[in-house]
Amino acid sequence: MYFVGIASMIVAMAVTCMVTPLTIRLGRHLGAVDLPGGRKVHLHPIPRIGGLAVFSGFLAGLAFAALATGSVPSTLSKVSVYWQGLALAATAILLVGLIDDVWGLSFYWKFAAQISSAVFVWLCGFRIEILTHPLGGDFELGVFSLPLTVIWIVGITNAVNLIDGLDGLATGIALITSLAVGVIAFVRAELGVAAASVALAGSLLGFLRYNFNPARIFLGDSGSMFLGFVLAVTAVRGSQKGPTAVAILVPLLVLGLPLLDTGAAVVRRLYRLGHRGARTNGTLRYVLSNFREVFLPDRGHIHHRLLQVGLSHRRTVIVLYGVGSLFALSAFLLVFLQSVWIASLLLGVLGTLLVTAYLALYSRVRKLSAQREAAGTEPVETQVESFGPASRSQTQTR
Asked: Which residues contact 127 (CB under 8 A, 6 or more apart)?
C-alpha cells in the first residue's frame, strides 16, 4: 500500500505537470486571466483557472490507485456512497468556481453552491456527530450535526480561498495539509482518506512548479474552492474512525493556519464595523445593515502584514509554510499520544503564538505607516484578497 500511495502521488504530479501548460493556454484563449494594474503585484496577464489542472491530476492519481488495488472496473459499482458523494460534490464546486473564474458569479451563488454541496455530502455520510471536551466527556450532536458539519465545510472552503493571497501560498499550505491528512490516514488504516489525500498532494506538487513566485498560473476560485472543499470533507471522514478524544482536534490542528487567519479576518472586520457603528449611537443596527462588509477585501491578513514589514514575496510564503508545518507536526504528535489535553494545549499554544505574532506585525505596520506618512511616502502596496466567495472583481486583485 505504501508503494501504491507513492506511485499514485507520482502519477498525479506527472499528469498535473503535463496538463498545466495546456490550462495556461486555455485560460488565455478564454480570456480567464487576471490583468495587472492598480494594487496588483504581477506585471502581465496571468490565467486563473488552475483548478482544472489540479483536478485533472487528482483524478489521475485516484484512478491509478483504483487500478493498482483492483478496484475497477469489476468493483466500481461497490465504491462507497461516501466517495461517490464526494466526487459529485467536489466536481460541482470546481465547476461553480470555474464559472466564476471565466464569467464571474456573485458570492451569494457561490455560498449557495457550497452550502448545497456540504448538505449533500452530509447526507452521504460525511458527518461531525460527536464533540469531545478536555474533561473527558463526549457530546452527541444529534440534530446539530448537520449545521455544524455545513459550517465546518463551508468555513474551510473559504479559509483556503482567503489564504490564496500570494503566489504559491494556498497551494503549498494545501499540500502540507493533504500530506498530513494522508500520513495520519495511513497510520489509522483509513485507505479511502489516504488515497484521496495522496492524489491531491501529488497534483498540488505538480502545480506548485507553475504557481510559485513568479506564478505562471493562479488557482482561481475553481482551485481554491475545490481544494478547501476536499480538505474539509476528507478531514471529517478521517476523524470519524478515530478515537473520539481526538476526532475533532486533529483536523483543527492540521488546518490551523487558514482557520486562525479566517477567524482573525472576521473579528477584525466586525470590530471595524462596531467601531464605526459606535459613532452613530446604533452599533448593532449599523453592524447588521453593513454586515456585507465582512466579506469585502482588506490588507490585514497575516501574509499582508509580513509583506508590509519588509519580507519579500518568497520569504513570506516560506515563513507561512513553516507555520503550516508546525500545525501538521502537532497533529502527528496528537495522533501518536492520543491525549485530548495535549491536543488542547498544542492548539492553544500555537494559536497564542500566531495571534501574538499577528498583533506584533500589526503594531509594526502601524509604526511604519506613521513613519511613511510623516516622510510623505506611500505605504507598501500588497495584494488584496477577500473572506468568503466574493465576486471575481473583488477577489482577483493581485
From this structure: 145, 146, 149, 236, 240
Distance, CA of 268 to CA of 191 (rounded, Å): 40
Which residue is it, cell 493556519? 257
pLDDT in tens, 318-344: 999 998 888 888 887 777 776 667 766
Render pLDDT for 200-246 as a digit per residue (tens, 0 to 9). 999 999 999 999 988 999 999 999 999 999 999 888 776 655 544 45
**CA-CA distance, 220 to 114, in Å (whole number)?**
16
CB 234 within 8 A of CB 191: no
Q: List Cβ neighbours of 256 (8 Å cut-off, separation of 6 or more).
A: 324, 327, 330, 347, 350, 351, 354
Q: Which of 121-135, 172-186, 287-301, 362-376 has the highest mean predicted lDDT (pLDDT)?
A: 172-186
Number of compact structural domains in the chain: 1
Cβ-based neighbours of 318, under 8 Å, separated by 6 or more: none
| Residue listed under C-alpha cell 500545525 | 327
Residue 279 lies in a domain: no
The answer to whether residue 276 sits within a structural domain is: no
Cell 491530476 identifies what position?
A: 57
Query: CA neighbours within 13 Å on the CB side: how many for 128?
Result: 27
Cβ-contact 146, 294 below 8 angstroms: no
Q: What three-state secondary structure class fits 384?
A: strand
pLDDT band at residue 393, thresholds of 50, 70 and 90?
very low
d(CA 210, CA 203): 12
- CA–CA separation, 192 and 179 (whole Å): 14
pTM (2 d.p.)? 0.83
Question: Mutual orientation of helices 145-163 and 220-240 as an angle, nearest 10°?
Answer: 140
Q: What angle do CA 333, 336, 338 make, to 5 degrees?
A: 95
Is 154 inside any structural domain? yes
In a domain, 153, yes or no: yes
Give me the domain span that covers residue 175.
Answer: 2-266+292-395
pLDDT tens by residue, 233-243: 888 776 655 54
Terminal Cα-to-Cα distance of the chain (whole angstroms)? 41
